[in-house]
Design brief:
Shape: globular
Largest sheet: none
Strand content: under 5%
Distance between the termini: 37 Å
Helix content: over 70%
Oligomer: single chain
Radius of gyration: 19 Å
Number of helices: 10
Structural class: mainly alpha
Order of helices and strands: HHHHHHHHHH
Amino acid sequence: MGLRESKKQETRQLISDCATRLFIEQGFEQTTITEIAAAARVAKKTVTNYFPRKEDLALDHHEAFTGGLARAVTEREPGEEPLAAVGRTFRAALLDHSPVVGFTGIAFARMIADSPTLTARLRELHDQREEALAAALTAAAPESAPAIAPLSGAALIAAADRLLFRRIQELTLAGRTDDEIEATLLPEADHLRALLAAALANDPTAMAW
């Protein structure tokens, strides 16, 4: 990374950090872009150049989030089934306590839960995550597979994914530590993966993805 790009990354991170602090202290709805710019000591236009939507200041991992399931499919090992790749990727993120799967800390989780705007935006991001997965499964499906097969597979996987994300957020708000959440979610994730495998096994085209 060159010096110019490194400086841009530092500025972006500074803005994000200042925004997060203010959102947690004041609430997302109550915090203005002007206040964030002042805290980061940059122009208001600089903030909007880096973050066109105010919600992106809070949910700044949105690109990694929306493309995560799709990447698990497209970058899977040769011969690995999509569901296995998704499960492996989720397990790694869970063990890493990644914010992409919902590990945010109690203050951040409460900030999202208290904001109708962020709650709505999170639903949109989950929808985009499912759409990207559906596109990846469609590209991986054999020509003989009916068009509905990858779409139904994506819907089932995404539903389980949303449930696990919500579980992490709920346990975080309940005051559980990341290690405690990990211990709770590992068997729950295994249970969901078994249910998905059974459901997808009933579709003879699904396991050929």
